[in-house]
Task: structure prediction
Amino acid sequence: MRLLCKKTYVVSIFLVLSINAKSQVIISLLLGDQLNTGKIEFGLDGGFNISDLKGIENSKEINGFHLGFYFDIRLKGPWLFHTGVIVRSPMGDKDIPSYSTGNLSLDSLFLDGRIDRNLRYFNVPLMIKYTTPSRIYAEAGFQLGLLNKAFDTFTARVYDKEDLTYVNDNKKDYHPLDAGAIVGIGWRIIKGYGMNLGVRYYWGFVDITLDDSGSNIYNHSLYFAVGIPIGVAKARKRAEEKAIK
Result:
């Protein structure tokens, strides 16, 4: 019972974060200067990612775009703590092995088609970041994820015309939480509060499927990220005005 309560508590925290995540991005754009201080840098984090499900044979990586916001919290010297919420974070695979939908009519239509597996997470990175005088940085830590959507898209060509599609919602087949290690390197283009360009790789530690009869399946994803500080100029001006007073 105690273990169940703890799990429910963790899921509740993620739900609060994820439900409000998209609205938080919009609010953050409007209040970015209020979130930036001398010790905290706030900004948008987004870019292109290539994901793969380790454990599924004869499948291909799936591409997508991720978007969220980040906080770099300054610690001692060149060290920072990097966190935030990646609101949109697509993962999955394409061209996975075919399986029965449970409907003979659908199975006959998609017999020679393709299946793409789509997983949508709200991800929270928790990383320690080391910066150098040349504005190059390295970061490593953990990433926690809350599953938002999971569905397989069946696609087949019908009479050489338009594609026929069928979407199988299978969120119930996956664990709601994901966790793993994440590492990355990057470069701040301009000294101070300039744009960041980075590359990160995520290794999932959790077998994401609830059915333990098959092989274990883990999320892996390569991120090409751009970090854009928001409201830094206003925050600096406000700090200077306070110093004068």
Remarks:
- The first helix runs from residue 2 to 19.
